[in-house]
Specification:
Elements: E1 3-7, H1 19-31, E2 35-42, E3 45-50, E4 53-58, H2 73-87, E5 92-96, H3 104-113, E6 117-125, H4 138-151, E7 157-162, E8 168-169, E9 172-176, E10 197-202, H5 211-220, E11 227-232, H6 239-249, E12 256-260, H7 264-272, E13 276-278, H8 294-302, E14 306-308, E15 322-324, H9 334-345, H10 350-361, H11 364-374
Helix pairs in contact: 1-11, 2-3, 3-4, 8-10
Length: 378
């Protein structure tokens, strides 16, 4: 049995759209027979956590500073990593690629000095495929890259989600992985029998989600079905405000409901009231034509049929489960989406079949088992 420490931005109070992923990874690690620890943070400080156990590692005096979670948090996190090793030994550290500052090299040196393997996950590879930033932030990225280059010789393995890596990255062993999902954390969807159609668009509201295409499609729809779009997520880059305005201008303000951020039971209740989910429809806007998004895996695990518009090698070509749209700026035919949702509503076995597929092909357990074997941890 190995002890693993997961290092990522993990708020203990409040919602983060990546917490489901991190919880799924750690749950899978435990299911494989290992201990999964992580560092979480709140107003009181940085905590070493496993299950219901919490040990305070350090305070976070700058917690209330504007922008803390995107800046100084990562300085505190590296200090907390060092403190975690004072409490116990770990065999492996699994770290999501993140901004690093002046104290990161010392923390990583300590990890390796203590004999732990360091695995770094790139959630979007190459990184530029997922990066959109302003000119003012470019020097910060440049500084982070410089610091990270000092850490790189101490990395045991890169795990990359995206383009084929050829088994190395900058001379470091690397392997391609896919995003997984913890199937049992999500309730199984039940097919609705009502005639109206409810669509769920779940994401941080950024322009590359392309939900303006969905609103325009609804505005142009001439069919008989009553269609409602549920937008769930907070402001990403100003698009949320733009899309609210667009819905009003196109005369569908009463049919596009903006719920803001939702999670837990409230989100589960809304999902249960919908007939189909919507994946990203504008990834072409950041020149991304293949992706393995968590959202589609969560729809699959829930058994909620979905529409999407990007190549994803793990998504089955099964018209009962999903409808693929064009990943470009062409008009979307809402009648096509309505027909897909209506067809899915006719087969009550679809949710269970989708869930079974997710369990076999999209589980974090299989992904992590392969990663651990790569670094010779069994």
């Amino acid at each position: 049995m190995a002890k693993a420490l997961f290092v990522m931005r993990y708020p203990l109070n409040g919602w983060d759209n990546l917490k489901n992923k991190f919880d799924g990874q750690m749950s899978a690690m435990e299911a494989l027979g290992h201990e999964a620890w992580h560092i979480g943070y709140n107003r009181e400080g940085m905590w070493l956590c496993r299950g219901g156990s919490r040990t305070l590692l350090k305070s976070c005096p700058l917690y209330a500073m504007p922008g803390y979670s995107k800046t100084y948090l990562y300085v505190d996190l590296m200090t907390a990593v060092c403190k975690a090793f004072e409490h116990q030994a770990f065999d492996v550290v699994y770290m999501r690629y993140m901004p690093v500052f002046w104290n990161a090299p010392a923390a990583i040196r300590l990890i390796r000095k203590k004999g732990a393997k360091l695995i770094v996950e790139h959630p979007t590879y190459p990184a530029e495929n997922g990066r959109t930033t302003s000119l003012i932030r470019k020097p910060v990225f440049k500084y982070n890259e410089h610091v990270f280059s000092r850490l790189e010789p101490m990395i045991s393995l890169y795990t990359l989600i995206g383009d084929p890596c050829g088994e190395t990255l900058h001379g470091i062993p690397a392997m391609n992985i896919v995003n997984g999902v913890d199937v049992d954390r999500l309730p199984l969807h039940s097919v609705r029998t009502a005639d109206d159609i409810h669509l769920l668009a779940l994401a941080s509201m950024s322009h590359w989600q392309g939900y303006d295409r969905l609103i325009e499609s609804l505005a142009a729809y001439q069919g008989d079905a009553e269609v409602t779009i549920h937008m769930v997520g907070g402001e990403g880059d100003g698009s949320l405000a733009e899309w609210k305005k667009l819905a009003q201008e196109r005369g569908v303000g009463d049919k596009v409901i903006f719920h803001g951020e939702m999670f837990g039971e409230k989100l589960n209740e809304l999902v249960e009231s919908c007939d189909a989910g919507v994946g990203g429809l504008g990834l072409y806007r950041k020149k991304q034509f293949q992706s393995m998004t968590l959202k589609l895996r969560e729809y699959m695990a829930r058994g909620l049929p979905f529409v999407y518009a990007v190549d994803d090698p793990s998504v089955p070509e099964d018209e009962r489960f999903c409808l693929k749209l064009q990943n470009d700026d062409s008009a979307i035919d809402m009648a096509q989406i309505v027909a897909f949702a209506q067809n899915a509503k006719r087969d009550a076995s679809v949710p269970a079949q989708m869930r079974a597929y997710a369990r076999e092909h999209m589980s974090w357990q299989g992904v992590l088992k392969t990663i651990l074997e790569k670094v010779e941890i069994s």
